[in-house]
Fold 4187_t:CDS:1.
Amino acid sequence: MNFEVSWKETVMSVVTTTTTTILYAPIVNDGIGPLVNFHLSSAFRLFSHADDDLDETSGETASGTAIASGSGTNTTEQEEGEIKAGEETAQSLKCDDCQRLFRDAAMAERHAIKSGHVNFSESTTAIKPLTEEEKREKIAELKERLAEKRRLKLVEEKEDEKLKEKIRRKSGKELNEAREKLQEREMEKALLLKKKEKEEERAAKARVKAQIEQDKRDRAAK
């Protein structure tokens, strides 16, 4: 059975029935005129576009079949922009020693310095952005750490100053002791030299006196 012929016959039947209703409408009830006009208008519209509807329906069906067929064919093919295995982009750095993730190389480097861990690798795991509350907490934590570092640095500087002052005092005391010892040695040398000079002076006087006595004896013997 031809679908197109049956469709047109149905439309013509509707038009004929509606037209008959219009002819007898004034006799039965004047109030059904608008309703009949609506049906008649709809029937003529369907009849005038019957071929278009069939063509569009056929086109849509064929297009739908083609799309379905095409999509079924491409399901096994790689979609445009799809990332292949091994092409994943690194989203973070992972410490293989403790499995912690870091946003960038600077944070990973700080972790390495602090922990002594040395094994790192790229990771495709993306670290979710911090919330505003988490950002405020991180900033507060950073400020607290910086304040603690400054406090420890001041304590260390004070300890260094105390140690330097102790060394200076010790050095000064040792220097004074060394000076005193040097002075003592110089004084001892001076005393020894003076004593030696006196002994030499006495020996010289004794030689002179002995020579005088010898001269006297020599004159007496003549």
The longest helix spans residues 132-221. The helical segments are 3-28, 33-48, 50-74, 105-115, 132-221.
